[in-house]
Design goal:
Layout: H1 2-23, E1 27-41, E2 44-51, E3 60-63, E4 67-74, E5 82-85, E6 111-117, E7 123-129, E8 139-145, E9 159-168, H2 173-183, E10 192-195, E11 212-215, E12 220-227, E13 233-238, E14 243-248, E15 251-258, E16 261-263, E17 268-274, E18 281-289, E19 303-309, H3 329-338, E20 353-364, E21 379-384, E22 387-389, H4 397-403, E23 436-438, E24 441-444, E25 449-456, E26 465-469, E27 474-481, H5 486-489, E28 500-501, E29 503-506, E30 510-517, E31 522-528, H6 531-536, E32 539-544
Length: 564
């Protein structure tokens, strides 16, 4: 047994070394020590889970072609995993991170080392916990610079800053979601939004720690925007400064100028600003985009940071930033429509997997002799194609798939909704409100070209769903409102310069169409990045089969892969 383990480690070392030599790149080693730390926000001190005592966690900066080796030591009282959001993890799902999908969680006192390569990606991504609601405080930026012999496809900025938008609860976020699951109601609203961990001047007990970005006059500044909020899409703006969008989800875009950015949870956007205004102090601000029904409760506060020109008196009141109305769906749709690839792209084809997935909420009847806090005494749930996803507990899905362990999942997730209905209508049958709980995967042949229509539903209520696919980037061919109609909506497809993303907002009472090649074998999670929806079951997973030979097959698991 020891000989086999030693042989495996040697082979893994050789494989890893070969990848590095091929890329002529660097290996970056990091230790992530996960532990609790007392933090004061909004006049309250509470213990939060952090990485290395930092909130937000460490910013990792690498180059395209580099490799990362991150040893995670769990000194917290909760199980944890780390997901490297947007990293493709080619053939290496073991490093992807979602608990019970590609690995069992790292238990308290345990360790696990994530080893992975950055292959043909550059821009702004991020990392976060992917177990329960720990990502409320366990997150950080992952910045991928161009290779040393390359450069940005835009003017080199004088300065650049990660701008991480977060969401803060005065209560322990784990308790917040546990209470929601116990009662069947929605989680309590957050108490604040944050920029780089600080709420900003508009909240009590916060102005002394407001995040400040120092700049000089006449500079080009790159802001790397990340929405790390748990349940809220956010509008963002900078007072008196236009922004030029140059990348989204670590893919370069055709530059366009805007005064407002929309980011769903999980999404990133790189913008350039010119410091061409009179020397002073200017607010950066973010607040909710609330796409749900008019009476939906939400956090309606505004987080701020300060863009401060050099040598400014700190007592000078910053200029306010204008933001759209909370429910400004027109602005949200217009911003999304402006994002395009910088040049014509070769669209994958022909399509041999035509899929149609519904996404939305649902309501379970309250169990007998129980009191439930959902609408009309029900319990909230969520589903895709009327199946509410259930995570396994004894094995991860990837382990079960790799080693043929029976009884963990089935491979009969439907390619289309089992029941066709007026998805965005107002008179949906109550029989559709209660999805079936299951652990169903959809199998894909290696190399197949997948076109997926993601259709929002109005079961109970409709809102925008930021849908994320692990291990993949995809082209967004179109988005629209109402029920997708292939006969008329196919004409709206952008087959010239569609944007490439890893997370796409499916419009409220609308749809999105994406296309990608299934060239990464393994089990890859597909889910809404609003974490209450994910917790309720708005998820599924693709099982991408191995192709021919080792270069088209999932690599063996590392020996330190955690056990359940």
């Amino acid at each position: 047994m020891e000989i086999n383990k030693s042989c495996f480690l040697f082979c893994l070392f050789l494989w890893f070394s070969l990848q590095i030599l091929i890329a002529n790149a660097e290996v970056h080693y990091h230790d992530f020590v996960v532990h609790a730390k007392p933090v004061k926000r909004l006049c309250h001190t509470r213990s939060i889970i952090t990485v290395n005592g930092q909130f937000p966690g460490p910013t990792l900066k690498v180059r395209n072609g580099d490799s990362l080796v991150v040893k995670v030591v769990n000194q917290a009282k909760y199980n944890i995993t780390i997901h490297w959001h947007g990293i493709r993890q080619m053939r290496n799902g073991w490093a992807d991170g979602p608990a019970y999908v590609t690995q069992c969680p790292i238990q308290p006192g345990g360790t696990y080392t994530y080893r992975f390569n950055i292959e043909n990606q550059e821009g702004t991504l991020w990392w976060h916990a992917h177990s329960s609601w720990l990502r409320a405080t366990v997150y950080g930026a992952l910045i991928i610079l161009p290779k040393k012999d390359s450069s940005y496809p835009f003017a080199t900025p004088k300065r650049e800053f990660p701008v991480i938008l977060g969401e803060w609860w005065n209560s322990n976020p784990i308790d917040v979601i546990r209470q929601a699951l116990k009662t069947g109601g929605a989680p309590n609203n957050s108490d604040a939004f944050t920029i780089n961990g600080q709420p900003g001047d508009l909240y009590k007990c916060s102005s002394k720690e407001t995040t400040v970005f120092p700049v000089g006059p006449g500079e080009t500044v790159l802001l790397r925007l990340i929405n790390a909020a748990m349940v809220t899409e956010l509008f963002f703006s900078v007072a008196d400064h236009k922004m030029t969008v140059v990348a989204a989800d670590a893919s370069y875009t055709k530059p366009f100028t805007t005064s407002v950015i929309l980011l769903g949870p999980g999404q990133t956007t790189d913008v350039l600003i010119q410091t061409n205004q009179p020397a002073g102090r200017y607010y950066l601000a973010a607040h909710a985009y609330e796409s749900g029904p008019p009476n939906t409760p939400f956090d309606n506060t505004t987080t701020t940071a300060i863009l401060s020109y050099e040598n400014q008196i700190t007592s000078t009141q910053p200029k306010p930033a204008a933001l759209p109305a909370f429910n400004d769906t027109a602005t949200a749709a217009a911003f999304t429509a402006d994002i395009k690839s910088p040049r014509p792209v070769k669209i994958p084809g022909p399509v041999n997997e035509n899929l149609f997935f519904t996404v939305g909420l649902g309501l379970y009847n309250c169990p007998p002799r129980k009191t439930c806090s959902g609408p009309n005494g029900t319990r909230f749930t969520a589903s895709m194609n009327n199946y509410s996803f259930v995570l396994p507990k004894q094995q991860s899905l990837l382990q079960a798939a790799q080693f043929g362990i029976p009884g963990v999942f089935t491979t009969d997730f439907p390619a289309t909704p089992p029941v066709k209905f007026d998805y965005t209508g107002n008179n949906i049958s109550p029989s559709l409100y209660q999805p079936v709980k299951a652990t169903k995967l959809y199998p894909l042949k290696y190399g197949s070209v997948v076109q997926l229509v993601i259709q929002g539903t109005n079961i109970y209520a409709s809102e925008e769903h930021p849908m994320h696919i692990h291990g993949y980037e995809f082209y967004v061919l179109a988005t629209g409102t109402g029920n997708f109609n292939a006969k008329k909506d196919t004409a709206k497809f952008n087959l010239v310069d569609p944007p490439r993303r890893n997370t796409i907002g499916v419009p409220v009472k609308g749809w999105a169409v994406i296309r990608f090649v299934a060239d990464n074998p393994g089990v890859w999670f597909v889910h809404c990045h609003i974490d209450s929806h994910l917790t309720w079951g708005l998820a599924m997973a693709f099982l991408v089969e191995n192709g021919v030979g080792k270069l088209q097959s999932t690599i063996p698991p590392p020996p330190d892969l955690p056990k359940c």
